[in-house]
Automatic annotation (TrEMBL):
This is non-specific protein-tyrosine kinase. Its EC number is 2.7.10.2. Its main location: membrane. The lineage of its organism: Bacteria, Pseudomonadati, Bacteroidota, Sphingobacteriia, Sphingobacteriales. The chain crosses the membrane at residues 34-52, 496-515. Residues 273-300 form a coiled coil. Belongs to the CpsD/CapB family. Belongs to the etk/wzc family. It is a multi-pass membrane protein. NCBIfam families: eps_fam. The keyword rRNA-binding does not apply. The keyword Transferase applies. It is found in: Cell inner membrane. Residues 22-111 form the Polysaccharide chain length determinant N-terminal domain.
């Protein structure tokens, strides 16, 4: 084997990337597939158009509430003496609490039922239904809305007169205006005719959904938040397809919220007034009886004046009497409240602030009243066996026990105080006993009168305070920005959808190209080869667009002919006066025979004698490509000593200086024939007769024939076919060169296709490019009518 000179120093094939080569390659791939980007972009824009065409727009309805927040001082009224009595009505207000109240399901349910938003109307279209507010009829549900178990959608088509046809995918039936009919899962329904200014030929319809689903939909579309923590305002937002309907629903929700707030305050106030009024009636009757007794006593005893001593005793007794009166009053109040609490079968709200000195007990009352009100609201739509009602009953039971215990403790303390006061009063009574009996009887009656009068005045004061507090009850919130729908829909956004459709449309071919590169396992470019091996590339042959096996002639100026000439030029530097060229590849079908045949003709154009040796003894193809009949060849010659070389040399028929040595009969042991001494003598004799010997060997990735023939070769041309050879197969030539099994190896790229502006214009150098140099200029494809 001849030693190689460092001709690569002059003709290097190492990659010399510029800073913008990757960018130009990427742009070239995009330009090469421009029609896919245009098509997918148009498809994306078209899909966005149809999406916008058949998607119902959604509008945003906004409102703002100002809430009286005791923590932030954002009350609706200026501070006054009347507002000091508001503690009688319950707990303090908090904007955070009101946000949670506005989100409660019970309040949303009241709004849904009041607005009947579980019934919707639409204009039936060919593709989708458009929600509307005004239709020629009104749906009247005659059964309880809570009895709706499943929803339905019905189209209403007018027939003749008042006759109507109702239909959906499951059923069709006829009815008339004001005629009752049954719907499965809904109940009894009636359609009421109403004035309508639209076209009578339009088809309308209605939908009915269960109330719980309508409440869930309202909860999802409703937004309640405090956007600024420094102020006590609540922002309400509602997304709705119909702006006017959204405004109505939000107005109804706010109205129901205000009504519920006032109702809770009035319930507590009314309960307190009822309790105080009952006590007033009792104390008034007792006071009247005592006064009657005094009047009768004076008449019967003819008592006109009391001695100075009696005055002193009465003044001293007055203090004890007042103290006993207050104590008895508190004991009576405790007994009355205890009666309220022990009535667990029909629990009622407990009056607040009746025992002002008992701070601990007053903290229990607001929570107890709140649970009673919540239980009453739940019982409006549920039974006592409902888990939520039972849960509240358990809370009430525990809270009632704590309050009863607190009352018992307070009563013990008051009784102890009463005993001490009574002891002192008894001491005073013993002193009064010394006065005349008439005067002593009057003192007893006067003391009883004072006790009852104190009770009466206390209860009358509390009644007035409570009545004033109830009159001063106002909503703790105020609408400062009424519900108003925005002018433009929030979804879908037209510009954004068109941009998104165009982006996704362009992204599809781009992603396809990227995935194609990621999943590609075959060699597609020179960069794929250079990334996995350092073996130099001798040349590249373009894709053969003709059916001819020989594409090189004396007069040919095609790009592929010029590439074979460039390959011939590069080969002269590699051979360095050598003559034998070995062709192999990784697998069958990579074009070894095609390149070997055309290279032979290209070398013959220099008036060189060339012999082609068909040494793929297992699957010969050169004879068939040349269209020659099968005859004696290599396998006959090496096993028959009597044959001479002239008997196996056949003219190729493609050029007078190119001959062929056929493979001959397919032997059972082709590898052994290649190493026989007669093979060496054959090659030696051929070197004397020819300028170049081209050996077409089988793929080295399948059999070892090429390795055996390498002993006779000066250079090995390893053929790689674009989009055919696997990337992993490059380990074969790498391993052969590393272990010295075949040296030297040069790559020849076959079936190379132009894949972009960069490659087409500049190629890869030294025969890798295949532009229009030397060719007749063609008209652009868009000027096809000017082509001849």
């Amino acid at each position: 084997m001849k030693t190689m000179n460092n001709w690569e120093d002059e003709l290097t094939f190492e990659e010399t990337k510029t800073d913008n080569k990757d960018l130009l390659t990427f742009i070239g791939r995009i330009l090469r597939n421009w029609y896919w980007f245009v098509l997918c972009g148009l498809i994306g824009v078209a899909l966005a158009f149809f999406y916008l065409r058949y998607t119902t727009p959604t509008y945003m309805v906004k409102a703002k509430l100002l809430v009286s927040d005791d923590k932030k001082g954002g009350g609706l009224l200026e501070p006054s003496a009347l507002l000091d009595l508001s503690s009688l009505m319950g707990t303090k207000n908090s904007v955070d609490n009101e946000v949670e109240v506005l989100k409660t399901g019970d309040l949303l349910r009241e709004a849904v039922l009041a607005e009947r938003s579980f019934i919707g109307y639409f204009n039936a279209g060919q593709i989708h239904n458009v929600p509307v507010v005004h239709v020629p009829f009104h749906v009247l549900l005659l059964t309880d809305p809570d009895s709706i178990s499943e929803g339905t959608i019905l189209k209403v088509r007018r027939l003749t007169g008042d006759k109507l046809e109702l239909s959906n995918t499951d059923t069709v039936f006829s009815t008339s205006y004001d005629e009752m009919f049954d719907l499965q899962g809904i109940g009894k329904v009636k359609l009421i005719k109403q004035d309508f200014n639209g076209s009578k030929d339009e088809v309308f319809g209605f939908s009915i959904t269960p109330v719980r689903k309508a409440v869930g939909h309202l909860s999802q579309s409703l937004g309640v938040e405090v956007t600024n923590k420094n102020v006590s305002t609540i922002d309400l937002t509602l997304t709705e397809a119909l702006p006017k309907r959204g405004e109505q629903i939000l107005q109804t929700l706010i109205r129901k919220y205000v009504e519920r707030n006032l109702h809770d305050k009035n319930v507590v106030a009314d309960s307190t007034l009822s309790f105080i009024s009952a006590r007033l009636r009792s104390v008034t009757a007792e006071l009247a009886q005592v006064e009657n007794n005094i009047s009768g006593y004076k008449k019967s005893t003819q008592l006109a004046d009391i001695s100075e001593q009696s005055k002193i005793l009465l003044q001293t007794s007055a203090a004890y009497t007042k103290s006993l009166a207050e104590t008895e009053t508190q004991l009576a109040i405790l007994d009355a409240i205890s009666t309220y609490l022990h009535d667990d079968k029909s629990p009622r709200v407990v009056p607040s602030s009746i025992i002002p000195q008992d701070i601990a007990f007053n903290t229990f009352i607001p929570r107890y009243n709140e649970l009673i009100l919540q239980r009453d609201r739940l019982l409006l739509g549920n039974t006592v066996d409902n888990p939520m009602v039972r849960n509240i009953d358990k809370q009430l039971e525990g809270l009632r026990a704590d309050m009863v215990t607190n009352i018992a403790n307070s009563r013990k303390q008051l009784e102890l105080a009463q005993q001490k006061q009574q002891q002192r009063s008894d001491q005073l009574t013993s002193q009064i006993a010394e006065v005349p009996s008439i005067e002593r009887g009057f003192i007893d009656l006067a003391r009883m009168q004072q006790i009852k009068q104190e009770q009466y005045l206390f209860l009358q004061q509390k009644w007035e305070e409570t009545a004033i507090g109830r009159t001063a009850n106002v909503p703790n919130s105020k609408v400062i920005d009424s519900p108003k729908a925005e002018e433009f829909p929030i979804a879908p956004k037209r510009k954004l959808m068109y941009a998104l459709g165009l982006f996704l449309g362009l992204l599809m071919p781009l992603g396809t190209l990227y995935l194609k590169d990621m999943l590609n396992i075959r060699i597609r470019s020179v960069e794929d080869i250079q990334a996995k091996t350092t073996i130099p590339i001798l040349g590249a042959i373009a894709h053969n667009t003709t059916q001819e096996q020989v594409v090189v002639s004396k007069t040919s100026r095609s790009p592929i002919a010029e590439q074979f000439r460039a390959l011939r030029t590069n080969l002269e530097f590699v051979l360095q006066s050598g003559k034998t060229i070995l062709f192999t590849s990784s697998m069958s079908g990579e074009g070894k025979s095609f390149i070997a045949l055309n290279l032979a003709v290209t070398l013959a154009l220099l008036d060189k004698r060339v012999v082609l040796m068909e040494l793929d003894l297992r699957k010969p193809t050169l004879t068939a490509k040349l269209g020659l009949p099968a005859g004696k060849g290599f396998s006959h010659y090496v096993v028959r000593p009597e044959m001479d070389i002239e008997s196996i040399i056949t003219p190729s028929g493609k050029h007078e200086l190119v001959d062929l040595i056929q493979a001959g009969a397919i032997p059972p042991n082709p590898a052994e024939l290649l190493v026989l001494p007669r093979t060496q003598s054959l090659l030696n004799e051929l070197k004397e007769r020819y300028d170049y010997i081209i050996m077409d060997a089988p793929p080295v990735g399948l059999v070892t024939d090429a390795q055996l023939l390498n002993r006779y070769a000066d250079v090995c041309l390893y053929v790689i076919r674009q989009d055919f050879t696997y990337k992993d197969q490059l380990y074969i030539p790498n391993d052969l060169e590393k272990k010295g099994k075949i040296k030297p190896i040069q790559f020849v790229i076959n079936d190379l296709k132009a894949k972009g502006t960069y490659e087409r214009q500049y190629g890869y150098g030294y025969g890798y490019g295949y532009g229009d140099y030397g060719q007749e200029k063609r008209q652009p494809w868009w000027k096809f009518w000017k082509q001849k």
